[in-house]
């Protein structure tokens, strides 16, 4: 997808921003397909009692769908602005691309990160790296939980892979900022701590929601993302 071209950090100088958006809009005007809402790999009620069917349906059909729709609109406007060489409009569209593109990227990973058969502990290379980089699985779990709970306002807590150091690293992102585009880390597992992800069920008690999320983590998916990230080191 065209969004893959936005792996350059968003905090760029003005000249670099113009170059990035010209590349994206030029590609989009030529062969950019519409982004679509991905299907969930399970039923809306499959993650109960950890996440209710009502939350999952609203989160997927309303919130994620809105990010997808607004991303398509922003890309259309970007292509129009590029065709007119309207640099001011190109730059002005950056927040919409960042927010809605990030929302689409983040949620597409999030759904796959969860499973009705999830929970427990990972194994293989993922567990080996967790123990190497965090000391133990429990240390990792505690650190990531604390990070998720501590996010101010809305945002995400992520387990990412650092392709430079070949190690696992935790990071939080505000709002819908996508992990790789803003930090360079490859996203492996994310906890969505926007209130729409849990408020109907957990009210304002975010720690309870974060604690419960460990019961539905799809470690198979997280491990597969790690393998892919390791294979692309240096690419």
TrEMBL record:
Catalytic activity field: 2 superoxide + 2 H(+) = H2O2 + O2
Keywords for this protein: Manganese, Metal-binding, Oxidoreductase
EC number in record: 1.15.1.1
Top-level taxon of origin: Eukaryota
Occurrences of domain Manganese/iron superoxide dismutase C-terminal (ranges): 122-225
Domain Manganese/iron superoxide dismutase N-terminal: 34-115
EC supergroup of this enzyme: oxidoreductase
Annotated function: Destroys superoxide anion radicals which are normally produced within the cells and which are toxic to biological systems.
Similarity remark: Belongs to the iron/manganese superoxide dismutase family.
Name the record gives this protein: Superoxide dismutase
Source organism of this protein record: Limulus polyphemus
Gene: LOC106464753
């Amino acid at each position: 997808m065209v969004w893959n071209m936005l792996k350059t950090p968003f905090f760029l100088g003005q000249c670099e921003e113009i170059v990035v958006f010209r590349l994206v809009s030029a590609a989009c005007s030529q062969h950019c397909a519409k982004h679509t809402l991905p299907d969930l790999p399970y039923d809306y009620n499959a993650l109960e009692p950890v996440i209710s069917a009502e939350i999952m349906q609203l989160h997927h059909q309303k919130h994620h769908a809105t990010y997808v729709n607004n991303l398509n609109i922003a890309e259309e406007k970007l292509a129009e602005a590029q065709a007119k060489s309207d640099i001011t409009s190109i730059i002005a569209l950056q927040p919409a691309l960042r927010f809605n593109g990030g929302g689409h990227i983040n949620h597409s990973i999030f759904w796959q990160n969860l499973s009705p058969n999830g929970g427990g502990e990972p194994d293989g290379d993922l567990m080996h790296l967790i123990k190497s980089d965090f000391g133990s699985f429990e240390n990792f779990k505690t650190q990531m939980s604390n990070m998720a709970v501590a996010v101010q306002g809305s945002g995400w807590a992520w387990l990412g892979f650092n392709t430079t150091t070949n190690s696992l690293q935790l990071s939080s992102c505000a709002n819908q900022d996508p992990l790789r585009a803003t930090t360079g880390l490859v996203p492996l597992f994310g906890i969505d701590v926007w209130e729409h992800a849990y408020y109907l069920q957990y009210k304002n008690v975010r720690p309870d929601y974060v604690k419960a999320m460990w019961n539905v983590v799809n470690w198979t998916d997280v491990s597969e993302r790690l393998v892919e990230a390791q294979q692309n080191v240096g690419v």
